[in-house]
Amino acid sequence: MPISNDINYIYCMKMPILICVLIMFFTIKVKANNFDKVRYNKFDINKPLQITIPAKFPGGEKAFGKFLAKNLKWPDPGIDAQGKVIITFTIEKDGRLTGIKVTKGMGEPFDTEGLRVIKKSPRWIPATRNGIPIKSVKSIPINFTISE
To answer: Is the pLDDT at 34 greater than 50, yes or no?
Structure first.
């Protein structure tokens, strides 16, 4: 009979350990599954993507370049300076330009000429988010160079 007592003793000691191991295994498995579900639920497939299209000059960059070439005048023939004036402005939902200002200038006559030309600009095509026009801010460099 001592053998059966040993088997019962081993069985009684190992069974709780086996049960604990199984419980831990299933707990880890459940937590892993819940983690995947939480991570998946953070991405809501019913929420539309935020697609933003920036504002642009009517006709695009080439048309803007032609507009500048046609309208930009050298401020003073006696000035031999070259450089860049950066003009920043807000494009409203309806395409109007507001808040036009020089953010980097190169002197009074050049800054004034840059402002004059941008103020003469036609309405822009406004930026859109998900197809709806939105207000946006744009900075444009205007280069003053002497071409020979």
So the answer is: no
The yes-or-no verdict on residue 84 having pLDDT over 90 is yes
When mean pLDDT is compared across 27-31, 79-83, 93-97, 109-113, the lowest value belongs to: 27-31
Which residues does 76 contact at the CB level (< 8 Å), separation at least 6? Answer: 109
Quote the CA–CA distance of 148 and 136 in Å, as a whole number. 37
User: Is the Cβ–Cβ distance between 66 and 122 less than 8 Å?
Assistant: no
Q: Which residues pair with 78 in a beta bridge?
A: none
* Domain count across the chain: 2
Please tell me the pTM assigned to this model: 0.65
Q: Write out the two tokens for 138.
A: 């744009």
Looking at the structure, do residues 23 and 40 belong to the same domain, yes or no? yes
Owning domain of residue 59? 52-144
Helix (H) or strand (E) holding 89: strand 83-91
